[in-house]
Amino acid sequence: MQAAKPGRARYSILLVLFLATTITFADRSSMSIAGSALQEGLGIDALTLGYIFSAFGWAYVLGQIPGGWLFDRFGTKPVYILALFAWSLLTLLQGFVDLLPVAWAITTMFLLRLAVGFAAAPCFPGNARIIASWFPTAERATATAISSSAQYAATALFAPLMGWVVYAFGWQQVFIVLGCMGLALSLVWLREMHSPREHPRLGEAERTFIESGGGLIDLETQATSKAGPQWRHLRLLLGQRTLLGIYFGQYCNNAITYFFLTWFPVYLVQARGMSIIGAGFAASVPAIAGCVGGLLGGLLSDGLLRRGYSLTLARKLPVVVGLLLSGSLVLCIYAESDAAVVALMALAFFGKGLGSMGWTLVADTSPRQILGLSAGLFNTFGNLAAISTPIVIGYLVSRTGSFDWALAYVAANALLAVVSFLFIVGRIHRIELDEQSGAEPGAPRSASGSVS
């Protein structure tokens, strides 16, 4: 008798994740589109704008470990819905800071960006938990790539749209529009998001397919039945060379991300002489390339795995090739035409998308009992770049009056990421936590079957 085919409930979960990630990154990328107008409207210099750009990152980093712990302790749905509602409301409030005196407006914008960063902190650790529980190992890279591609789709869609909004209505309206969209999405999330054990449309055939393929379908049950991770688990995670290499690689990878999310449109306006609307449309081209690269990287990785190649090769090959391509953005220093700059940035962002396997690697390697904590720690390391990159670039531009050293800085981070993934990470395997003591990892198991 032929086995029943698995259903497609997991794809509806992936769609909700994609929408939530799109709104998250729309806020970040649209801040960069509004950056030049905001700088002019508030009368601030490049370094001050860099600090406002980085405010999100300060709080985002501080919120990662607490956010990951909250997921492991209380489960994904309640924590995520609270975070989504809070960051959307705070985004909306940014549209009204111009009603204050200039000095207060600058301070309030900085504080609101801090608050948005803290509220948004749990979201990517939550995405990692949801994908680890809803998708088998052989589909995990593709699912992660689709979810993560929302960051590129957000820029591709919202950069030109918000560029037009800034031009037609002012930079304040960017935050009002995005805040309202996020609040509406909160209602969708509340209705559609469930764990594999509780989803009303998940059939037994699909549940078996997910579980037998390595999906961690009991993560939510474990979250509500235990007291949550202990602080000693941080020492365990930080003592694992594989995880440290992944964490550091993500920091370098995110330096590329935050250049695009903060300074890239400003670079197009100030260094290349484009209009705000032109910069919005130009910024969408690399974003589309990044989306294509991200999807291709996930499909390539899972395809290699299904064809019998090792998990290590399947995950590392797209990372190394992609990040090497990302380094090509340094060639913009020598490009004379705007078209050449956009083409080089598109190539670099395609490579960045191709090599963005960090979240998949976290789901593949982290101890299942503390996956949320590991994801939070991973995103803490990665988003230190959200703090350092805007400030370093702002400093370099202020001191030199040029973006050349800024481009070289971003390209250098791409090469450092390659070194980390090649020589520090080592073999990709699941690190097992001793169920009884919780103190030391056991021997790694195979990536096939029920353990990935």
From TrEMBL:
Family from the record: Belongs to the major facilitator superfamily. Phthalate permease family.
Protein's organism: Pseudomonas berkeleyensis
Protein known as: MFS transporter
Keyword field contains Transport: no
Limits of the Major facilitator superfamily (MFS) profile domain: 13-429
Membrane topology (UniProt): Multi-pass membrane protein
Subcellular location: Cell membrane
Gene Ontology CC annotations of this record: plasma membrane
Regions that span the bilayer: 50-71, 78-97, 103-124, 145-167, 173-190, 242-264, 276-305, 317-336, 342-363, 370-393, 405-425
Keyword annotations from UniProtKB, A to Z: Cell membrane, Membrane, Transmembrane, Transmembrane helix
Molecular-function annotations in GO: transmembrane transporter activity
